Amino acid sequence: MSTQPLTLAAVNRMDEDAFVASFGDIAEHSPWVAKVAERARPYPDRTAMVAAFVEAVAEAEQEAQLALLREHPDLAGRAAIAGELAPESRNEQTGAGLDRMTADEYDRFSRLNATYRDRYGIPFILAVKGATKDQVLAAFEARLDNPADIEFATALTQVQRIIRFRLEDRVSA
């Protein structure tokens, strides 16, 4: 992944394989999102590109949406501790301070992650860019009482926000 954002013109010139190679990781381990979003090219602007990715997630079959949600790592979970997060996930969690927790905070996250997964069958997903660990914990606790259908929709909305943030980092306006 380049450190310089791509121009929209460069994105629109890519063939399908190059596009999927460049953006297949935007949605955690789910290159199908990029494959679907690619069909909306050429994009008139970055907003349209983001919309194509968001729509790809929104219009997918429920099984594909569920698989996408399950691909997301737990916040401050085992993958983070083992250093196995995708670079963007690692940067997002680090930015929220999830790499600098006390033992008590880590235990609290572990309990919340386990409770959430048991209750909903998916990891807790929150677009943590710009958030603090206290804000993440507050959102975690607030969402634990949601009905399953509301939480599924909320998790998808959070994935779409993550996608937007990641595309905004990779493609210039």
Automatic annotation (TrEMBL):
Enzyme class: lyase
TM spans (from-to): none
Domain of life: Bacteria
Pathway: Purine metabolism; urate degradation; (S)-allantoin from urate: step 3/3
Catalytic reactions of this protein: 5-hydroxy-2-oxo-4-ureido-2,5-dihydro-1H-imidazole-5-carboxylate + H(+) = (S)-allantoin + CO2
MF (Gene Ontology): 2-oxo-4-hydroxy-4-carboxy-5-ureidoimidazoline decarboxylase activity
NCBIfam families, alphabetized: UHCUDC (TIGR03164)
Name of the featured protein: 2-oxo-4-hydroxy-4-carboxy-5-ureidoimidazoline decarboxylase
